[in-house]
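can u pls check wat happens w/ iron/sulfur cluster
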Amino acid sequence: MNHFISRRNTRVIYVGGIPIGGGHPISIQSMANTDPHDFSRTLAQARALKKAGCEILRLTVPDRESAEVLGALKKEEVGMPLVADIHFDYRLALAAIEAGADKIRINPGNIGDKEKVRAVVDACRERQIPIRIGVNSGSLEKHIYEKYGAPTAEALAESALYHAAFLEELSYRNIAISVKASDVQTMILANRILAEKTDYPLHLGVTEAGGGDRALIKSAIGIGALLAEGIGDTVRVSLTDDPVEEIAAARNILASLGLADKPGMDIVSCPTCGRTKIDLIALCRAFEERARAEGLLDKNIKVALMGCVVNGPGEAREADIGIAGGKGEALLFRKGEILAKIPESAAIDALIEQIKKM
Ligand code: SF4
C-alpha cells in the first residue's frame, strides 16, 4: 500500500485486457530478446517472463516472418498481451495487427506518407488497438535535434508530441507515450513535461541502462522518482541481461513505493555490524534461494533476517516472521515474539517451514 502517492489522472487505454492509466495498477512490461523468427525460443521466453510476473510482452517485428511468429504466439495463449515493435514500415504494422498484436509501438512521424499513417490508424481503430509512441534520445527527428542542439528533455517531449499530432489529426487518441533516455535526469524531466502537457498514459523506462547494479540503480531512480510524483502508468526496466531479471527489478521498484499489485515477499535484513553473531550474509543468500526454489516469494509477507538478539526482534517488530542471530543459534520470532531457539545450521529450514504454514 502506498500512503503518499497521488497518481496523475490520465486517459485509460487497454492493451488486451490490461488497462493502462487512470489510476489502474502499474503494469510491468518486458521485451523478448530471442530471434524474432524463432518461435519455440520466443515462446519459452514468453512463458518464463509470464511466470516471473511480466504482464505485457513486446516483440520486435522487423519483417513478415516475425509478424507470423507473433500470430503463432497469440494462438499459444501466452497469457499476456503482445506488443509489436515496428520501425518505419507501415506494412509491417498492418501485418502485426492482422496477426493479432494487442498494441503497436510505432512513431507515426516516421511512417512517411499521411495515407500510410491513416491505414495504420484505421486498422488500430477497427480493433481498438492502442499505439505507443516511443521516443528515445537516439531517435530524435532532425528538425527537433537542430532546434535544441542535443537530445534534451524538452526535445524528447517535443518529439513525442510531434508524433502524437499525426494521430490526433486523425482523431486517434488511443495512445501511450514513452520518452526514454539513458541519462536519468533527462528522462525524469522529459516525463514531467509530458505529464503537464498531455493526459496520455506514460510508459516509463531508462533506456540503455546497462547491466548489473548500476543499471538497477539508474532504473530505480529514474522510474522510482517519477512514480513517487504520481507520474507513470506502466514500466519497463531495460537491462543488458536476461529479460526475466527486468521483471524482478520492476517488481521491486513498485513494491518499494507501495504500488505493486502483488507485492510478494518483502525481505528485510540488517546491514550487520560488530554485534552480529551469525553468518547473516550467507544466511540471507541461502534464504532467498530456498524461498525462490520453494515458490514462496509470491507470499505477501514481511520476513526479517537480523544479525543479533539485542536489536533483532525489536528492529523487525513489524515483520510477520524472522530470525535473529545468537551465538551459534538463531531465535525464530513472529511479530516480535520469540517462538523458538534453533541451531544456526537449522535456521533456514525452520524459517521456511513456518513460512509454508502462513
Ligand atoms: Fe547490528 Fe544487531 Fe542491528 Fe544487525 S540487528 S545491525 S547485528 S545491532
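The radius of gyration is 23 Å.
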